[in-house]
Specification:
- With 239 residues, the chain is an alpha/beta fold.
- The protein has 2 domains: 120 residues, Rossmann fold; 110 residues, Arc Repressor Mutant, subunit A, CATH 1.10.10.
- 42% of the residues lie in helices and 21% in strands.
- It has a 5-stranded parallel beta sheet, with helices on both faces. Strands 6-7-8-9 form a 4-stranded antiparallel beta sheet, with helices on one face. Strands 10-12-11 form a 3-stranded antiparallel beta sheet.
- A hairpin with a 4-residue loop joins strand 7 and strand 8.
- It starts with 6 loop residues before the first strand and ends with a helix.
Length: 239
């Protein structure tokens, strides 16, 4: 077992799920705090943010979407995983648009949850990995500047607040302007070693990414949808 110090918050109103998830994560060496409702969790998060949050969507007192919104207002980089029921597709999409990084449908295996948590932490740590320095060079595509070492991006000189997933998707698109990236290719770029992500997840993240550019520049058109294939960065159209 690998020693870890990351703190994971688990927010779910089902005691059995809280205890089972906490046990599985603690067994991997993570520190875990659990909460039975959104308001209780938010009161704790206002004092100290966890390193990763696992949120049920249907929570008493404050639902998971509202809690996600509040967390994103405090941190754009905090990894967030939603727990949903199979019939809550609309809630899943809305959650991803609010900034969640991933989701799991109940019932899920603890092995799958632990795998996703590991992937999210691994992705968040890439910026400080010396072996990735060649990929971390400054990238410029028109009015876009990407710093792969610090995981930051600027549009027309103004910083963009991006999640890790959004940054990796943007980097994948801007690295080769004009080239179409399929959803599968984008999944491999943004979710390395993770086989659980759906194409709908990529679409939701791209939609949110576009909105962040448009909040800085109403005329933004740098991310082009190629129907039936995927997306591409249009450098000329973005300048």
């Amino acid at each position: 077992m690998q020693s870890r110090t990351e703190l994971v918050a688990v927010v779910d109103d089902e005691k059995n799920i809280r205890e089972t998830v906490a046990f599985a994560l603690k067994r991997e060496g993570y520190r875990v705090n659990t909460y039975a409702d959104g308001a209780e969790a938010w009161a704790a998060f206002r004092r100290e943010l966890p390193d990763l949050a696992v949120l049920d969507i249907l929570l008493p007192r404050m639902d998971g979407r509202e809690l996600c919104r509040k967390l994103r207002a405090k941190s754009e980089t905090l990894p967030i995983v939603f727990l949903t029921s199979k019939d809550e597709e609309l809630d899943r999409v809305l959650g991803l648009e609010l900034g969640a990084d991933d989701y799991l449908c109940k019932p899920f295996s603890m092995r799958e949850l632990v795998a996703r948590v590991k992937v999210l932490f691994r992705r968040a740590a890439l910026a400080s990995d010396p072996s990735r320095r060649e990929e971390a060079k400054m990238l410029r595509a028109g009015s876009l500047e990407i710093d792969g070492l610090r995981y930051t991006a600027r549009w027309r000189g103004e910083p963009l607040a991006l999640t890790v997933t959004e940054f990796l998707l943007l980097q994948a698109l801007a690295r080769h302007p004009g080239h179409v990236k399929t959803r599968q290719q984008l999944m491999e770029e943004a979710y390395p070693n993770d086989a659980y992500v759906s194409e709908r997840t990529i679409d939701s993240h791209v939609k949110r990414l576009r909105r962040k550019f448009e909040s800085r520049d109403a005329a933004f058109s740098g991310i082009d949808t190629v129907h039936g294939l995927g997306y591409r960065w249009i450098e000329a159209g973005a300048e």
